[in-house]
Write a structure and sequence with these properties.
- The chain has about 425 residues and is of the alpha/beta class.
- The protein has two domains: about 150 residues, Lyase, Ornithine Decarboxylase, Chain A, domain 1, CATH 2.40.37; about 260 residues, TIM Barrel.
- The protein is about 30% helix and about 25% strand.
- The protein is built from twelve helices and 23 strands.
- The strands form four sheets. Strands 4, 16, 17, 18, 19, 20, 21, 22 and 23 form a nine-stranded mixed β-sheet that branches. An eight-stranded parallel barrel has the order 5-6-7-8-9-13-14-15, surrounded by six helices. The protein has a three-stranded antiparallel β-sheet with strand order 1-2-3.
- A hairpin with a 3-residue loop joins strand 16 and strand 17.
- Helix 2 packs parallel to helix 9.
- The longest helix has 21 residues.
- The termini are far apart.
- Bound molecules: ligand LLP.
- Ligand LLP binds next to helix 10.
């Protein structure tokens, strides 16, 4: 009935998640409320880990891309499920440290790591720095020298695969602020440079071709391009790089129109391509990392809101105002992202009313979804927006001094708070 397996409808016609009545969750914890289903998250983590065993002899590791939702409980779950972590800031590193995450399994990304972040990452013995540019390479080497350390590094490479078109294309040079270009020779020069530095050790090459991708072919093409580059490095420099990180990007269902490819198919096809290319270049089969983010938590999450008002503008549209908005989910305002909205009070009823769901910010563009069909909405109803586990809390703000909502984790009919609701005191705690 719903795009997400963890959702159902109970005898009262209420939407349930992980066996919990969403109306009871709203009553007990207040709205807006982020709700995550633990079973869905753990099952997805296991599917990733098992696919490595099934298709690649276990010779690799998925890293949870924590930018989608960085909090202590998600770090703990990722660790329990044998995933590593991809972090992009000092704050995400700190969160992992606080959760007791094994730092050797953490990769540090970002196109502008500050000197302070680099020092902090070295102090906590982070597993790998994914170096973005030559300035950073030099800075990292210098800081390592000061600290008498050697850092394991990866290079972020632009493989020239654009997956965001209907038919993916290979471009000579993608305009991107991230990484080293292959086509211009920039990436090869960077590899040569890294080999001259004493305090960095080049272990891995990395690429990430985009997000919310439904097609497997661009991933396969990117993997092949990366293997070709590894072959070139071996042939021309006599250096074997033994690890390959293929990034994240696997698409999820926001609405019934979305058709994600089963992840198993990805791993099967990419494994075959990587092994074939390794043989062609006489390279050892590399250890592989992937960095799924959205697909780990996206469909496991929903957001609950209370309807506060309804404004019918004849011949124009009907606005339904909720007690949250772009502060807890900025994705429609930013990208016009499609979402499925469900009237949680009447989840057994056919959607029959077309509404625009508006947030409470002083901003006309503060909308969650326009012209979407829901079962007729009344003031006081609870609305659920589906597939909000990824890039919602992590992109939340305090615009209009609106406190960030709480997040609860549900499992088998039980709910527990994993992130507390912000208070008004929280909002002024840094004000002098
Ligand atoms: N690895 C790297 C290097 C990345 O840059 C990203 C996402 C991922 C992994 C995880 O990709 P995923 O599996 O989640 O697609 N805020 C946007 C998405 C930005 C993606 C940034 N990079 C959104 O809300 O759609």
């Amino acid at each position: 009935m719903f795009v997400n397996d963890c959702l159902s409808v109970n005898d009262q016609g209420h939407l349930t998640i992980g066996g919990c009545d969403t109306l009871k969750l709203a009553e007990e914890f207040g709205t807006p409320l982020y709700v995550l289903d633990e079973t869905t998250i753990r099952n997805t983590c296991r599917a990733y880990v098992n696919s490595f065993k099934k298709y690649y002899g276990g010779n690799g590791m998925p890293l949870y891309a924590s930018k989608v939702l960085s909090c202590k409980e998600l770090c703990r779950i990722a660790n329990e499920e044998n995933l590593g972590l991809d972090v992009v800031s000092g704050g995400e590193i700190y969160t992992a440290v606080q959760a007791g995450f094994p730092m050797e399994k953490v990769h540090f990304h970002g196109n502008n790591k500050t000197a302070d972040e680099i020092r902090y990452a070295l102090d906590v013995n982070i597993g790998k720095f994914v170096v973005d540019n030559l300035y950073e390479l030099e800075l990292l080497n210098r800081i390592c020298e000061e600290k008498n350390k050697t850092a394991n590094i990866s290079f972020r490479i632009k493989p020239g695969v654009d997956a965001h078109t209907h038919n993916f294309i290979r471009t000579g040079q993608i305009d991107s602020k991230f990484g080293f270009a292959l086509e211009t020779g920039e990436a090869f020069e960077a590899v040569k440079k890294a080999l001259t530095y004493d305090n960095v050790c080049l272990k891995e090459l990395h690429c990430h071709i985009g997000s919310q991708i439904f097609d497997i072919d661009p991933f396969v093409t990117a993997a092949e391009i990366m293997l070709d580059f590894m072959g070139k490095i071996k042939d021309e420099l006599g250096v074997v790089i033994s690890e390959l990180n293929l990034g994240g990007g696997f698409g999820i269902m926001y609405t019934k129109e979305d058709e994600p490819v089963p992840y198993e198919e990805y791993m099967e096809k990419v494994s075959v391509a990587v092994k074939a290319k390794a043989a062609e270049h006489n390279l050892p089969v590399p250890y592989i990392y992937i960095e799924p983010g959205r697909s780990v938590v996206g469909e496991a999450g929903i957001t609950l809101y209370t309807v506060g008002g309804k404004k019918e503008i004849p011949d124009v549209r009907t606005y339904v105002s909720i007690d949250g908005g772009m502060t807890d989910n900025v994705r429609y305002a930013l990208y016009q992202s499609a979402y499925t909205v469900v009237n949680a009070d009447k989840a057994d009823k056919e959607p029959d009313e077309i509404v625009t769901v508006a947030g409470k910010c002083c901003e006309s563009g503060d909308l969650i979804q326009e012209h979407t069909k829901v079962a007729s909405v009344e003031v006081g109803d609870t609305l659920a927006v589906l597939s909000t586990g990824a890039y919602n809390y992590s992109m939340a703000s305090n615009y209009n001094r609106i406190p960030r909502p709480a997040m609860v984790m549900v499992k088998d009919g039980e709910a527990r708070v994993i992130i507390k609701r912000e208070s008004y005191e929280d909002l002024v705690k840094n004000d002098i």
